[in-house]
Structure prediction request, 361 residues.
Amino acid sequence: MDLNVLVLPGDGIGAEVTREAVRVLGRVAEKWHHNLKLTEGLLGGVAIHRTGTPFPEETARLAAEADATLMGAVGLPEFDNAPPEKRPEKGLLAIRQALGVYANLRPVRAYASQLDSSPLKNHLVEGTDMIIVRELTGGIYYGTPRGITENGGETRAVNTMTYTRTEIERVSRMAFHLAQGRRKKVTSVDKSNVLENSQLWRRVVVEVAKEYPDVALDHLLVDNCAMQLILNPRRFDIVLTENMFGDILSDEGAVLAGSIGMLPSASIGGRKPSGVWVGLYEPVHGSAPDIARQNKANPLGAIGSVGAMLQYSFGLKEEAGAVDRAIEAVLASGKVTADLRPSGAPATTEQVGQAVCAAIG
Ligand code: IPM
Ligand code: MG
Prediction:
């Protein structure tokens, strides 16, 4: 099979974690005789430096042409005070929108060998296995009007949270469909006691649920969900929620997995003419500039994202399964980066990538 993949390393640790993810992709292509063709592009702060914009047109073209895109991370402290439009993060929001990847799948698993990496008690996190399905191209991240205005000596900031029925329906169907292949339970998270947006969200999710009678649906308010994630994480199978709630809850999920460096994600939506999902694969973590270029960032979130790419964009279940099992084997071997608090000397980013390749065989 031809695998035409665009790689957008981005900023900070993005370059080093995607290097290892690409190493693993190369190993998979070699072992299963796929024809891997890689292209590299600019996104985020590095793109601002080289082209003046965080999402250059060239990157948009490359992403449209590729079968799938692998992203590292975006964000650099030097842009902290820049307006939203001129920040590296704008590049990420723009590529998500341009590709129309409306569903962001963020699996959260507590691996048996890593229970001690979590600050929570082992018996609480043990067995955690959920996917947070985060709506990704709507809500307050994209709503207008937005901006900061000055008027009569007062300064006012506005953001707008908006959802249409169509936007809620399509991401809900994705969540229910995923649930059918798992433990058949969707927990929809909203703030319907306060927000009209959430009232529509809940109404539409209830309607969509009727198309999936084999899947159980329950609802949690987002503040309660934040608490239940820590108190009783095993109760969750699929967590379905809007863009900003999903952003926040998935970082909380990282505490269950032991480190934010562990979490992969698949952003999918729409189909290519060939029938495969349009996909952008991005670890959940940020660019961590404080540890960049030190060969110590955890590449497993990026490597897991390659597994997701093999599964969703290329339909290669066997290869995807091999990547997941290799990650599990490397974790069990104790060859892990410092964020997972290994008992011995921590492994480097590169060593973890090499170990995953070796485990794939
Ligand atoms: C994430 C990140 C991004 C988001 C930032 C970098 C724009 O936090 O993917 O979770 O908020 O979506
Ligand atoms: Mg986030």
Observations:
- Residues 74-75, 89, 92, 247, 284, 286 surround 3-isopropylmalic acid (ligand 1) (CB under 6 Å).
- The first strand starts at residue 2 and ends at 10.
